[in-house]
Each structure stands twice: as structure tokens, then as C-alpha cells.
């Protein structure tokens, strides 16, 4: 390879002495050796060197850091601190950061933004997540209950849903800016409960009526009526298996008394675990994706949109959201309680 490079340079010097320019020399060389023989930019560089009076055809010895580096050392540094920059790795291994970038690319590493999680989990919280998931997984294996499961939650739906866009810019130019949605803007609070077949019951709360225990108990009564009407098989057989998160209105004493009165089997849910709540990891994510860029004029517009959104989802959609629970339980166990990030 080195001999071939030097051979090409002899040819370039020959054409330089014949009075040809770099472009002409490049065309003649490629006509004989193929288009990939030498880049035109390389020809131009060598011609510039010849014009300066330097007719040496060998590469100059390079000073500075060596470019050879053991991939295992790079992996070890990343495993010890996955936030290490290419320059930090280069300094530790005494090579150029360009060399590290090339090796990382060959190793298949890409740089990603950290994913936001609800909070840093303490060891006791990690153990609680593992314990809950193990319990639910084993219970479902012994007595499958997912087709009896009804789950629900609340979500604010704002009038103006801003969609952040990507834009092209040149190096050094400022990126385009987009204002975040005003947290005090008009919005509607959606409460929804669903199972593997679809929506069982949903409602919109008046703007100035927050969710508290009294409101939640009223909602549970309406939900029970909807279950008796839409899912009579649940009330006639083994009964409802109910899932909600640990929001204060959901865990108050009066709420527990109401749930006992209804006779529903309430599943345990570890604190700070939206990744184990089907509404959060599935239904609301799909809803928010559909809302991006949408603007509404009033509550009725929002409600009409949400009604249509739910109506357009078939049973397979809802079934997928519920039936992925065992896989997520196992994943939490495998990850020693850490959050599922996607």
C-alpha cells in the first residue's frame, strides 16, 4: 500500500514537471488506476507542495500522540463512567480525541442524552419495585388475571400543544428557539379507566375542581356502574382486579374503604413507578404523541378530540398495553429495580 502511494506521487510529480495542473493529473491517473486511486484534494495538496519547492515523495514523520489504542481500555473507561467525553478518554490514554471518536464509532457506541426519570431511587425503593414485580409476575403465572384488570389515572390536556421541530443550521449558527407551553394556560383534566378490551369509563373534571378523596370516591362509584354495564362478566365471576398508582387520593383511608365496599382486588403498586402503570407507559404516551402540535379553542374542542381518539383505538391497541405488563415486571427484576427507559 505504501509503495503504491509513493508510485502515485511519482506520477503526480511527472505531470507537474510536464506543466499539467492538479485536476488534469488526477483525471489521467484515475483513467489508468480507477476513480478510487486518489482523491483530487490529495493531488492538489501534492501539487501545492511541489510549487513550494519541496519534491520529497515520502510522508513526513508525524509528531504528537500515537494513534494505536486498545479497544478494551476504551470499554473499561466507559464502563466505569459512561459520561466520559472523547477528550477525557483521549487524555487518559494519551491519544488524540479524533482517534477515540473513530474507535468508538467502530465499536458501535453512540452518544445519547440521559433519559429523565421521576427520581433517583433509594435501595429500599429498588427492593420494593423488585418485590412487587416478582409478586405480580408469580401471581399472574399461577392465576392469570390480566383480562380482569382495570387500570386508570389522570392526565392534564392543554389547549395549545407545542411540537418542537428540528431545523438545519450551519456550524456556529444559533439554533431556532421554541417557547415551552405555558404551565398556567387553559387545560382540561382527564380521568380515564380502561382494560384489555378498551375504555371502561372516562370523564373531564371542571377547571377548578381538583382530584381529592371525595371526588375520587364519586368517580369510583361511576366506574363501578360502567363496569356492571360494559363488563358484566367481571361482576358475575371472579371480580375486578384494580390497579392505580399511589397518588394521595388513591391511597387515603376513605378510598380504601370504598374499594373494600366494591369488593375489588387492588394490586400493589410501588412508589415512583410510572413505568409500571399502563396509563403512563402506554395510553398517555400514545395520546400525547397524537396531541403534539394540536391547538384547541375551548373545552368542548378538547373533549371532542379525546372522544374521537379513544373511539379510533381498537381492542388490539388496549390489549397490547395491558399484556406487556409481565414483560415489564421481568425487566425491572432483571435490572435490579431500576427504571425501564425507552
Spatial arrangement of strands, main beta sheet: 3-2-1-4-5
| CATH superfamily caption of the largest domain | Ribonuclease H-like superfamily/Ribonuclease H
Q: Per the principal axes of the C-alpha atoms, what is the gross shape?
A: elongated
List the helices and strands in order.
Answer: HHHHHHHEEEHHEHHEHHHH
GO cellular component, one term: condensed chromosome
Domain Mos1 transposase HTH: 5-54
GO biological process, one term: double-strand break repair via nonhomologous end joining
Protein name: Mos1 transposase HTH domain-containing protein
Describe this structure in words.
There is one protein chain. It contains 15 helices and 5 strands. The chain starts with a helix and ends in an 8-residue tail after the last helix. It is elongated and about 100 Å long. The chain has 3 domains: 2-51, Arc Repressor Mutant, subunit A (Orthogonal Bundle); 71-107, Arc Repressor Mutant, subunit A; 123-162 and 184-334, Ribonuclease H-like superfamily/Ribonuclease H (Nucleotidyltransferase, domain 5), CATH 3.30.420.10. With 342 residues, the chain is α/β, with parallel strands linked by helices. Helix 7 packs across helix 15 and helix 8 runs parallel beside helix 11. Helices cover 50% and strands 9% of the residues. Strand 2 and strand 3 form a beta hairpin. The relative contact order is 0.11. The protein has helices spanning 2-17, 22-33, 40-51, 71-80, 86-93, 97-107, 123-142, 213-230, 232-236, 248-251, 253-262, 278-291, 299-311, 315-323, 325-334; strands spanning 149-158, 187-194, 199-205, 241-243, 265-266. The protein has a 5-stranded mixed beta sheet with strand order 3-2-1-4-5.
Amino acid at each position: 500500500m505504501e509503495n503504491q502511494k509513493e508510485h502515485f506521487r511519482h506520477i503526480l510529480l511527472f505531470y507537474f514537471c510536464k506543466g499539467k495542473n492538479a485536476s488534469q493529473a488526477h483525471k489521467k491517473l484515475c483513467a489508468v488506476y480507477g476513480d478510487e486511486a486518489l482523491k483530487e484534494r490529495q493531488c492538489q495538496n501534492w501539487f501545492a507542495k511541489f510549487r513550494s519547492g519541496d519534491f520529497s515523495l515520502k510522508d513526513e514523520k508525524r509528531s504528537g500522540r500515537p494513534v494505536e489504542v486498545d479497544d478494551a481500555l476504551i470499554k473499561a473507561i466507559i464502563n466505569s463512567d459512561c459520561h466520559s467525553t472523547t477528550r477525557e478518554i483521549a487524555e487518559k490514554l494519551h491519544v488524540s480525541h479524533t482517534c477515540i471518536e473513530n474507535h468508538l464509532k467502530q465499536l458501535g457506541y453512540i452518544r445519547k442524552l440521559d433519559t429523565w426519570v421521576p427520581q433517583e431511587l433509594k435501595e429500599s425503593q429498588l427492593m420494593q419495585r423488585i418485590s412487587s414485580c416478582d409478586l405480580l409476575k408469580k401471581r399472574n403465572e399461577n392465576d392469570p388475571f390480566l383480562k380482569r384488570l382495570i387500570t386508570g389515572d389522570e392526565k392534564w390536556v392543554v389547549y395549545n400543544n407545542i411540537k418542537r421541530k428540528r431545523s438545519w443550521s450551519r456550524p456556529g449558527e444559533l439554533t431556532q428557539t421554541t417557547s415551552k407551553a405555558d404551565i398556567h394556560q387553559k387545560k382540561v383534566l382527564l380521568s380515564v379507566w380502561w382494560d384489555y378490551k378498551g375504555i371502561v369509563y372516562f370523564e373531564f373534571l371542571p377547571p377548578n375542581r381538583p382530584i381529592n378523596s371525595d371526588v375520587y370516591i364519586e368517580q369510583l362509584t361511576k366506574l363501578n356502574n360502567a363496569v356492571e354495564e360494559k363488563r358484566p362478566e367481571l361482576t358475575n365471576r371472579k371480580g375486578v382486579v384494580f390497579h392505580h398508582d399511589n397518588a394521595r387520593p388513591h391511597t387515603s383511608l376513605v378510598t380504601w374503604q370504598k374499594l373494600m365496599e366494591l369488593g375489588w382486588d387492588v394490586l400493589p403498586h410501588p412508589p415512583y413507578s410510572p413505568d409500571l402503570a399502563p396509563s403512563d407507559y402506554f395510553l398517555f404516551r400514545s395520546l400525547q404523541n397524537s396531541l403534539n402540535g394540536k391547538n384547541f379553542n375551548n373545552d368542548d374542542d378538547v373533549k371532542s378530540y379525546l372522544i374521537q381518539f379513544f373511539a379510533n383505538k381498537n381492542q388490539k391497541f388496549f390489549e397490547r398495553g395491558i399484556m406487556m405488563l409481565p414483560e415489564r415486571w421481568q425487566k425491572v427484576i432483571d435490572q435490579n429495580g431500576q427504571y425501564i427507559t425507552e
